[in-house]
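Example record used in the benchmark description.
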Amino acid sequence: MALSLGAYSPPLICKATAANNHSHRHVHDVAYIRRAVEIADKSAGFTSPHPNFGCVIATRSGDVAGEGYQYAQGTKPAEIQAVEAAGEHCRGATAYLNMEPGDCHGDHTAVSALVQAGIKRVVVGIRHPLQHLRGNSIRALRSQGLHVEVLGEDMQSKIVEEARKSCLLVNLPLIHRATSRVPFSVLKYAMTLDGKIAASSGHAAWISSKMSRNRVFELRGRSDAIIVGGNTVRRDNPRLTARHGGGHMPIRIVMTQTLDLPEEANIWDMSEVSTIVVTQRGARRSFQKLLASKGVEVVEFDILNPREVMEYFHDRGYLSILWECGGTLAASAISSGVIHKVFAFVAPKIIGGKYAPSPVGELGMVEMSQALDLIDVCYEQVGPDMLISGFLQPIPDLTPIIPSEDETFAIDPTVTPYESSIIFFYKTWDPYGAFSNFSPHPIQMPDDNGKYATWPSVEHYYQANKFVGVNDPVARNCIEKIKSAKSPEEAARMGRSIQRGQPTLVRSDWDSVKIDVMYRALKCKFSIYPHLNYLLLSTAGSVLVEASPHDLFWGGGREGEGLNYLGRLLMQLRSEFLGESSTSSENTCLAL
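Model output (structure tokens):
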């Protein structure tokens, strides 16, 4: 992910008088920030959800010394990659970041990398969108003597505003998470020139060209999940994979009120990617059991509507959803206000048909003046087709919540929004996200022979232990693959997929030992990182609950129906740590 000296050069800018140097510096700043956005976008969708970070380091002479982008949450920060690529060229250089670093675990690795490398100036595209992280890294950098500028806060111009907007766009799903309770949702469809998505018979293969379909695979690869309705499953029998997109495989979601779905369908094939069915409570119990036997997760709602479904997936940590549904569900989603952007592929074909379906069903509008106008419309020719895209809702503006120079905590250090008798944690970017198994904290654990090995995260260690001790070379290979997974998300998907698809590789005692495996990994993690130990002890008197709405074993569930074993283990560890003296702490693992 790191690029070294000479990988990029900004646009040439002619020499000017000293009076124009400040303006020219901003032109350079904009060029480098745009480059940071460009490389940050390389990670979009990979092991999502996670913010897209890019870093460019430029020397005082204007040469780019190093670049880097963060592949996934829990992997090496973009700043460290750029510093490593630039080497000694960092001394006195400027670092350009599309977004303020999200150091949310107390270790400030990205900030430390810039400080220790000798960076003198940092230019940030936007502050961190999440309120509890906003301004933290900027304060830390300034406290170390670095000059930090946030694009657009000290000088306004058209090119600065456009660059700032590009910083917003590259992390738009995260920004929507910070400003609303639904994921960023894109409605995609392909239609003929006369506005049909299928013939009157329902036949729809193929409306758009192969080049357009490849673009759709790319869109899928940038999304956390794809959602369709029951009609699409019955009529088209889709696979909904990103097989040509080069990105990760998004989760497939089927939204159906009646659960009137075929017993055999491509979407029930769980070998590559999981499927979730959301339906009305009580619908076809016997069919729900059939789906469960195939490994399909079924989630019931008292009232099935797009907004409630999206709020649920927001709580599960999903940032971006691609809607590839028919006109009825599309209209319902638009009416519910959960669609933010539209991608319409228009093919130069005419099919006609009085009853041929259109991409959006009834919205209740009777006059053209009621039509919804797209914002920031773009037109692009894709082979013989025309791609029209635009926003249905404005891009959220984060400007009103920019902290003052004093920063709020300096005015009243007693103010904290996180005091509560119940502390919820789930995603690593949350205020107590370091409690998650996915937090980027390597641990060293002994194997059966007493030799210590480093694991990138607790989740890596936990997933690999499903296959420990199995006398099968395939199982041993699974352990190594999980250990080398690029992120905790990848390790989790890998371990779960193998467990589901090849259950004979799972150790026979897994159900009885998995709690102990998790406990030992957590004890190691909270023993060797002092700031994590302090964070855990600071919650004394509070109940810790993993706020997973779907994991009823480790998490608390949607309505508190989960067993919350992860929260229980953390509270058990907290009690043990509080009861131990600092001189008699048990040495459970090697210090890193």
